[in-house]
Structure formats: C-alpha cells, structure tokens
Design goal:
alpha/beta, Aldehyde Dehydrogenase, Chain A, domain 1, Aldehyde Dehydrogenase, Chain A, domain 2, 2 domains, seven-stranded mixed beta sheet, 16 helices, about 40% helix, globular
Length: about 500
C-alpha cells in the first residue's frame, strides 16, 4: 500500500444554515457544530444545529406547502417536470457537488462523481413515475361504483446516514416529491454539506418554498422530527438501534415508517464458480466505500476446495491496495468518515485478534493523519465470533469455510440481519435453491451490488421495514383510499 499526496481542493462553502421555507437561516438556539474533513482531520465549516423549535418551524412550513400554494394544486405531470429540472440543475453543478461530498465524507472523488450520476438518474426515474400512480376500479356487489386512489401520505420526515450522503438525500426526496409529499430532512451530522447544497439547487430549480426543508443536527434533532405530531411518515436509513428507537417513538402517533438498516450479508463462493470474477467482485463487495456500505459482503463463505486459494488472492489484492488521499485518482480506499467510526473499526479489529481469528492483512491504522484503516482480512473466522455477527462498517472482511449446500444455507441465515446476500456458482439449480432459502431482501447471483432504481431494496428481520426504490419506493409515500359511489 502507498499513501497518496494529491492536494485537496476546497470549494467555497456558503450553505451552513438551516434550510426552512425556502431560505437559509440560523438555528433558534444559535448553536453550531463542526463538519470535519476525515482525510485531514481539519474543520471544513461550522453548521447550524437544529433544535426542536427549528424542526417545528420546518414541519409547519412543509404542512403549509402541502395544503396551500402552488405545490398543493400542482398536477402530477408538473411535479415530474420539476424533478427533471432539478436533475438538470444537479448535472450542471456535478463537479462541485462531487468535491463537497469527498471533502465531507472522505470517499474517493471518482465515487462521488458516480454518486452525482445516481442522483440525476433517480430524479429522472421518479419524474417519470409522478403521473403513473394509479388506483383501481373494483367490482363489488350492489349498485356501487367503487374505486381506489392513492394520495400523498403528507409531510415526510427523512433521516439519512453519512455513507452515501448525496445519494440518500435524492433517493429519499425523489419518490416523496413525485408522490406529492413535502419533506423535512435531517442529514447526518458528519456529512451535511451536500444536503444543504442540494436544498439551494432545489430552490433555484423551481421547487416551491416549504416543499423541501433541511435541518442539520444530531440525535436530538432527529428525535424532534420523529416525535412531531405534524409529521406523517418517517423514512430512516441507519443503524438498527436507532431504527428500533424510531419504531417506538413513531408508535405514539402511528406514523408510517420505512427503515433501511444494517446488515451482515453472506457472500457465498462455490468451487464451481467463475473464480477470477468472484474474487474480484467479492473484494469490491467489502472494501468499496471504505467498507461503509449497509449491504457489504462482510461474511465471505468459501467452499473448502477453494478456500485457501480465494483467501490468498484477496490478501494479495489488499497488499497492493492504495490507501490515501481521496482526490488522487490512483487511490482505491479513503478514510473512515469520522474519528468515532475509525475507532470503532479498530476496536473490532482488536476484538477479532483476541477472539483468535487469523489476521492476514492490515489490522491497524494507516498513516498518522486522517481516519485511515488498513484493509483488513481475517481468515478461519468462526460463526460465533463477534466480528462474524456484528456489523463493523469498515474495511474488515471475515472469511469462513463451508463444505456443503445445506450447511451454508443454515449458517448464512444464522444472523439477526437479512439485507442482502450473493451466491457464486455455475449450477443454476443450486443458485435458485439458495436464492429461495436465504432470508434476505436481495439475493445476487454471480454478481454483487446489482442494485437498480427499478428494483425494490430493503431487508428482512433487523435489516429493515418496507422497501425503497422501484414502484414500492414511491407507493410508500402514499395512502390508499377507497371511494364507493352509490348509483341507485
């Protein structure tokens, strides 16, 4: 591994206040918090910290926009046109958005550029869906004309994580706005910059005041959104622990809830797979985005016959992996998002060593500045080890042996999670057999991260509730109403 020294570019950061009712403004409490560049540990900006009073103002603005003004009477096709305008506006500022994302999050600039493209594509996808939210006519007994219609659920409170800040903003906004909702969004306190920049772009693109509101802050800000009686739905992406808290808090007013939570996804390699492709994609399945992906293939199950070969090939890749400045085009891994996550990952690595797992590569900090962790590979991991059971959310891969199909199905399902899984084999019957029996919201066959906007994404069990993306993603922002008209 070699550290890069490409100079970091710092754009002018002007959006640091709360964005409420179409304008930036300071917090009612006057407090701010720093957002830090994880590559250098330097403060990028001081961001206004939203209070319960600020959340109330944002919710009231969202409610006004929902019930009166241009958004309330806008037809679906025009909402779609606005989303297309927003997509075009983001495309115009793509490079600045990518640079901001890399500065604030630490991901490689190349990945941030891809994230901008994902944002544009998501807005265009749901723009096309805005006028395709259909009800049904229902044949019933008696002289009735009965039909259903789907209406906006109302004000959506959206709370997003720090691993894909920009993408999570748009993946939350796009279906909500296409459905006719208004939103109050809280970005992760570690990465607020692109959410605030997107709010400004949305206003300039013609989104009416009050339709999107952004209130940065920490757990207290998020709790205020969840508890507010004027919020009709909560859409949250983040940890299982916070997801459970949201479920409890939302129960008092029976808010609609969508949760996209953590995972400990099994990635299963059989001896008959295309080994070179499987190894390359299995490496990317864990180490991409510094291992900070909810669906990462963090439990690598490898059939006995090929275990030693696979583990050595991944170790070889790790030894050559370039860790360093995320602005350097040769860098393959940047820093963890903040000190807390950096220390959490190192603690798990220490625990893995203590539990007796064999650390083949990495195992510590990389460099002496920034929140960099060496790409770490543990071999001969046992199912009962903590590192094989808990979500680490860092560049730490656990390799486990298996010998037959029934064994690996049982072990893959021996988890509280159920977000994603992958199976690598040339035997299509075996592939479908595992796909049917693995308890996960998404199962990839002979690929990893085959995510598409048209396909629903979400988890079983502790990995979440409801689905994002696809038709399910937009229907989650609607309420279903039945209308019965007596004809005689």
């Amino acid at each position: 591994m070699a550290i890069a020294t490409h100079p970091v570019r710092t754009p002018k950061i002007t959006e640091t206040g709360l964005f409420i009712d179409g304008r930036f403004q300071p917090s009612a409490g006057g407090k701010t918090f720093p957002t830090i560049n994880p590559a250098t540990e330097e403060v990028l900006a001081e961001i206004s910290e939203g209070t319960a009073e600020d959340v109330d103002r944002a919710v009231r603005a969202a409610r006004r926009a929902l019930q009166s003004g241009p958004w309330a009477t806008m037809d679906a096709r025009d909402r779609g046109s606005l989303l297309l305008q927003l997509a075009d506006a983001i495309q115009q500022e793509r490079e600045e958005l990518a640079v901001l994302e890399t500065l604030d999050n630490g991901k490689r600039l190349a990945d941030s550029r891809v994230d901008v493209t994902l944002c544009v594509e998501a807005l265009r996808y749901y723009a096309g869906y805005a006028d395709k939210i259909y009800g049904k006519t229902i044949p019933v007994r008696g002289p009735f004309f009965t039909y259903t219609r789907r209406e906006p659920v109302g004000v959506a409170g959206q709370i997003i994580p720090w691993n894909f800040p920009m993408v999570n903003v748009v993946w939350k906004w796009a279906p909500a706005l296409a459905a006719g909702c208004t939103v109050v969004l809280k970005p992760a306190e570690q990465t607020p910059l692109t959410a605030l920049r997107l709010a400004r772009i949305a206003k300039e693109a013609g989104i009416p005041d009050g339709v999107v509101n952004v209130v940065p802050g920490g757990p207290a800000t998020g709790a205020a959104i969840v508890r507010h009686p004027g919020v009709d739905k909560i859409a949250f992406t983040g940890s299982c622990e916070v997801g459970q808290t949201i479920m409890r808090e939302a129960a008092s007013t029976l808010k609609r809830v969508t949760l996209e939570l953590g995972g400990k996804s099994p990635n299963i390699l059989f001896a008959d797979c295309d080994l070179d492709t499987a190894i390359a994609q299995s490496h990317n399945a864990l180490y991409w985005n510094q291992g900070q992906v909810c669906a990462s293939g963090s439990r690598l199950f490898v059939e006995d016959k090929i275990y030693d070969q696979v583990v050595e090939k991944i170790a070889e890749r790790n030894r050559k992996y370039k860790v360093g400045d995320p602005f350097d085009p040769e860098t393959e891994q940047g820093p963890q998002v903040d000190r807390a996550q950096f220390e959490k990952v190192l603690d798990y690595i220490g625990l893995g060593k203590h539990e007796g797992a064999e650390c083949l590569t990495g195992g510590g900090r990389f460099g002496n500045r920034g929140y960099y962790v060496e790409p770490t590979l543990f071999a001969n991991v046992k199912d009962e080890m903590v590192i094989a059971r808990e979500e680490i959310f860092g560049p730490v891969l656990c390799a486990l042996r298996f010998s037959d199909v029934e064994e690996v199905i049982e072990r893959a399902n021996n988890t509280t999670f159920g977000l994603a899984a992958a199976v690598w084999t040339r035997d299509i019957t075996k592939a479908h057999r595992l796909a049917n029996r693995i308890k996960a919201g998404t199962v990839w066959i002979n690929c990893y991260y085959g995510v598409d906007l048209a396909a629903p994404f979400g988890g079983y069990r502790m990995s979440g509730l409801g689905r994002e993306l696809g038709e399910e993603g937009i229907l989650g922002y609607t309420e279903l109403k039945t209308v019965a008209v007596k004809l005689a």
